[in-house]
Amino acid sequence: MNLGPWIAIFAVVLAGGATALQAPTNAKLAVAVSGPVNAAFVSFAVGTAALGILAAILHARPDMVAVKGLPPYAWIGGLYGAVFVVAAAWAVPRLGVATTITLMVAGQLLISLVLDHFGALGVPRAPISLTRLAGVALVIGGVVLVRRG
After folding, report:
1. Where does the sequence pass through the membrane (predicted)?
2. How would you label 25-47 residue by residue, b for 16+ Cβ within 10 Å and e otherwise?
3. Around Cβ 146, how many Cβ atoms within 10 Å?
4. Is the dihedral of CA 143, 147, 148, 149 positive or negative?
5. Could you state, in order of their start, the residue ranges of all structural domains in the chain?
6. Contact 81, 44 (CB under 8 A)
7. Which of 39, 49, 89, 100 lies deepest, with the highest CB count within 10 Å?
8. Residue 98: per-residue pLDDT
9. Whole-prediction pTM value?
């Protein structure tokens, strides 16, 4: 039995749980450090330190030939993370954790459908289908239920 996919599923579910924990943690931090942008800065500083330590432990060395060949968009992933962290830190006190995270997942799914459909940013093409749209509609319906609940 190939455990690779199961390990990946577990890791992604664990990361999703970490995201749910990150939102209220950074919202609390935002109160103490005068806003969600400052909270995101502190959060990224701590994350950068942790990643630096992990990279040192793993002796991770970049392939400089591959680095030089990267397209420009490959360098801005951290900006997306910054938007995510600031938005979550700002939204949690206003919407709650469940609504904030559910809305973020809905946004992720909508953009994911577009990226997959066009094969944008180097991802494999997967055309939008009624089944995929129905899946996203169910998540958006979940947003409505969570918000009303």
Report:
1. 38-60, 72-91, 97-115, 127-146
2. bbbebbeebeebeebbbebeeee
3. 17
4. positive
5. 1-95, 96-149
6. yes
7. 89
8. 87
9. 0.81
Taking residue 115's Cβ as centre, other Cβ atoms within 10 Å add up to 15
- Retrieve residue 149's tokens: 């609940």
Residues in the chain: 149
Contacts of 117 (CB under 8 A, 6+ apart): 125, 126, 127, 128
pLDDT tens by residue, 35-47: 999 999 999 999 9
- Write out the two tokens for 77: 């992933």
The contacts of residue 26 (CB under 8 Å, 6+ apart) are: 36, 39, 40, 43, 85, 88, 89, 92
Note the pLDDT of residue 50: 96
3-state secondary structure of 140: helix
The Cβ-side half-sphere exposure at 15, using a 13 Å CA radius, reads 7
